[in-house]
């Protein structure tokens, strides 16, 4: 006669799993913040780095290649959360982040700095730190109590905005000392490994083999789509379309694809993801627009502009932190349109105030970023609420993908309007030349969140149907 002991899985109990999830989410959030801080820092000083390594013409690759990697791994990591152990995924991510950090510093500080050692290190860091961001969202969506989800989604977007603002200052300070020290900022996150090993679930999914072929096809399609909006090479778009069509055929024929046709037949999810597609479309344009206005209209330097814009980042962080409590009191269906209204008002006010002084423009930017900080928690909760728990990892992956691709398309289109000085021949506020162009582009951007509000009110009954 044999005795069998049943070991209870703590992740099967909602109360226990929620408590363990909170313990894991804090170090994951700190890791994501430090990794994003490093990313934002290099985005600011990449031109200086290019000069220092003797390759100023190729300096943009320092941000472009890691940005491409980020766009791909955002989707893959989130989706893998439905199939593989989050514990193993995070171990690989933190170790990769640490190796990239140390390699980047040693190879470019101890030894002569080189463009490709910088790029390789940044790719390793980007691939590593995004594990923390994706794992955070998967754990929050799968294991937290419903009332805690909106709180931690709000903290996530607040963390991003805080890291963006600190990254600007850190890069400014370190660029005058040695930019190589930026590599070391996220290296400290390796100390979180024991805590994460203790508090992350060891197994995900049902033990099926990972559909690497499907991930490869979808990843390549996403890569070429992202590259197209960076370089506007039409053959890249054509290849992306062919690959996406091939992926569609593949998931109808494969035995066990990582994502099925039924996933895309979920009309509630399609309506909800459309909100992210529209609301996030103009997200990336405000910083370059303010830089352009500061330089051409007010004669300001980039540093002076950043000293103003940083307050808008802090407003976004504050609203992100408070968004969970606001959603808890007012509800998702009320807060989401409020956030969209603030975003639209910020852009429209900027268009009307282009000649009213840069402090007034900064206040308009704060209005937009208040909406952006408030938007993340309710819109992500809305989209993930249309999926089952077993699909939440792929839902996180698709969210990240749309949040990266949509604003990339937006910045490509709006940048073209900016460089062409489009709409400079007329102005509703009496501006002329470049100021008229920027005013009208802001007004055009303000129509996008209004379109998002129309989508929301048109489909909200369908999206929130039980």
UniProtKB/TrEMBL annotation:
Membrane-related topology note: Multi-pass membrane protein
Gene Ontology molecular functions: transmembrane transporter activity
The organism's place on the tree of life at top rank: Bacteria
Pfam families from the UniProt entry: MFS_1 (PF07690)
Chief location of this protein within or outside the cell: membrane
Localization annotation: Cell membrane
Alphabetical list of InterPro entries matching this protein: MFS (IPR011701), MFS_dom (IPR020846), MFS_trans_sf (IPR036259)
Keywords: Membrane, Transmembrane, Transmembrane helix, Transport
Single GO cellular component term: plasma membrane
TM ranges: 57-77, 89-110, 116-138, 150-173, 179-198, 210-229, 235-254, 266-285, 305-327, 334-352, 358-380, 401-423, 435-459
Domain Major facilitator superfamily (MFS) profile stretches: 19-464
PANTHER family for this protein: MAJOR FACILITATOR SUPERFAMILY MULTIDRUG TRANSPORTER MFSC
Official protein name in the record: Major Facilitator Superfamily
UniProt organism field: Bifidobacterium samirii
């Amino acid at each position: 006669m044999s005795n069998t002991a049943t070991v209870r899985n703590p992740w099967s109990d909602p109360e226990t799993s929620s408590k363990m999830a909170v313990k894991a989410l804090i170090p994951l959030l700190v890791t994501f913040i430090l990794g994003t801080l490093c990313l934002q820092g290099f985005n600011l000083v990449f031109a200086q780095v290019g000069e220092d390594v003797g390759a100023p013409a190729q300096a943009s690759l320092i941000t472009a290649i890691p940005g491409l990697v980020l766009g791909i791994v955002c989707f893959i990591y989130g989706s893998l959360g439905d199939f593989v152990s989050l514990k193993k995924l995070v171990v690989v991510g933190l170790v990769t982040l640490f190796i990239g950090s140390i390699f980047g510093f040693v190879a470019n500080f101890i030894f002569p700095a080189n463009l490709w050692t910088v790029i390789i290190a940044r790719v390793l860091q980007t691939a590593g730190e995004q594990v923390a961001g994706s794992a955070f969202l998967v754990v929050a969506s799968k294991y937290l109590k419903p009332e805690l989800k909106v709180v931690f989604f709000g903290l996530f977007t607040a963390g991003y905005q805080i890291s963006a603002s600190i990254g600007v200052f850190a890069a400014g300070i370190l660029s005058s000392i040695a930019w190589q020290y930026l590599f070391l900022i996220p290296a400290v996150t390796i100390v979180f490994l024991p805590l994460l090993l203790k508090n992350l679930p060891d197994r995900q999914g049902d033990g099926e083999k990972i559909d690497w072929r499907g991930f490869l096809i979808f990843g390549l399609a996403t890569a070429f789509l992202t590259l197209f909006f960076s370089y506007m090479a039409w053959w890249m778009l054509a290849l992306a379309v062919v690959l996406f069509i091939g992926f569609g055929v593949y998931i109808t024929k494969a035995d066990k694809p990582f994502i099925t046709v039924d996933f895309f037949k979920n009309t509630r999810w399609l309506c909800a993801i459309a909100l992210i597609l529209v609301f996030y479309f103009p997200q990336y344009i405000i910083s370059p627009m303010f830089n352009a206005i500061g330089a051409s209209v007010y004669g300001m330097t980039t540093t002076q502009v950043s000293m103003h814009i940083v307050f808008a980042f802090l407003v976004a962080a504050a609203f992100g932190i408070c968004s969970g409590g606001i959603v808890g009191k007012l509800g998702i269906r009320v807060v989401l349109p409020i956030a969209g209204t603030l975003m639209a008002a910020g852009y429209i006010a900027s268009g009307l105030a282009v000649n009213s002084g840069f402090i007034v423009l900064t206040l308009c930017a704060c209005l937009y970023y208040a909406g952006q900080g408030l938007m993340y928690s309710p819109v992500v909760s809305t989209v993930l609420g249309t999926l089952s728990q077993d699909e939440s990892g792929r839902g996180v992956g698709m969210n990240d993908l749309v949040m990266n691709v949509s604003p990339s398309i937006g910045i490509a289109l709006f940048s073209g309007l900016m460089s062409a000085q489009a709409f400079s021949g007329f102005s509703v506020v009496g501006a002329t030349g470049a100021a008229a162009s920027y005013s009208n582009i802001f007004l055009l951007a303000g129509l996008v969140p209004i379109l998002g509000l129309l989508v929301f009110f048109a489909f909200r009954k369908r999206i929130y149907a039980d």
